[in-house]
Amino acid sequence: MPDEEVFVPYGPTHWAALGVCVLGAVVVVMLGRRLRDTEAEVVFSRAFASVLTAYTVTMLVYRCLPGNFDVHISLPVHLSDLAWMVAVIALWTRVHWAMALTYYWGLTLNPQAVLTPALDSPDFPHIDFIDLWVQHILVLWAALYLMWGRGGRVDWRSYRLTMVVTVTWATATLGLNSWLGTNYGFLNGKPAHPSLLDLFGPWPWYLLVELLIITAAWALITWPWTIRGPGRAETRTGAAG
Q1: How confident is the model at residue 191 (pLDDT cuts 50, 70, 90)?
Q2: What is the pTM of this model?
Q3: Which of 159, 152, 161 is nearest to 235 (CA)?
Q4: Where do the structural domains in the chain lie, given as residue ranges?
């Protein structure tokens, strides 16, 4: 495979994808504010959820076809897989717990795949390139739309819920990786490509460092929402639990 066909971090296609990410983020926030509290908001949110579902389910089926299935990458157990699922629920139902998970995962863990993609494949328009970027960008846009477009909010209860769910996922995935010999979530080893995990020491210590950083970072992005005035009440359709 010629070198020019291989994805290069922060090469032309990487910068182009980041540009699309930023431009789309501005659009969905502005559109969310324009449509807020209207019937059109519900239509747009559910259309967004439908597009995200159609794309990710199509890719999941594609990955599981007999000629494509690889136990190391095809199972939907990465945190990014859970992220798109809860983003769909949040967009469709506006239930608070799903919106909260989308906020924390979509704005912190999800962007790591955008900024330091673990991608060893041909460049655009290869299916692996498209799959990584479309899924992660859509989830990021969903988080921005829900919070700054539609007007969602989080609190310390949201923070505690997300911590419990994330630790539960990590524990279960560690066990699954040990059983199958896989490395979903990069919980059993660092990615081959450079990433922030390289700064956190060897396994398993980088997992502890990552947990401490996440705990602090999520507290920091929760705090501003808890000190604001009453303002607009957050939407808790379907129950806050």
Answers
A1: confident
A2: 0.85
A3: 152
A4: 3-227
